[in-house]
Specification:
This protein is mainly α. It has a single domain, classed as Homeodomain-like (Arc Repressor Mutant, subunit A). Helix content is 74%, strand content 0%. The chain contains eight helices and no strands. α2 crosses α5 and α6 packs across α7. The model has no long low-confidence stretch (mean pLDDT 88).
Length: 129
Amino acid sequence: MYLQLIEQAEKYLKSLNTGDNLAAQLKRMLADLMASGEANADAACRILKISRRTLQRRLKSEKTSFQSVLKEVRADLAIRYLKDNRLKALEVAMLLGYSNFSSFTTAFKSWYDLPPAQYRERFLRIAKI
């Protein structure tokens, strides 16, 4: 299962804009950090070799924030992971760094206006057609 997750994360990374701005770099990095369970600003700063304040300042100049970038990556990966019916929804929540399924469900609803189970059901129904 780990290899499948790595494969999905790699596909996500390839789909990202290859722009050289910090937000794009951070998106690519966060997909990898999620796989290792370290998707946080401190881990990103260590890899980028910049201070947390510098990260905040540079992202602000790009009109974004760490939390916004993290949310975008989580939302994109959530869809990718839910399309893989081998993964349970709870596993998807854990892979995305949520401590419980309820938090993941709340976040997913805020992104897509429906719960993850309903999204998966619709996707699988469409995929069968």
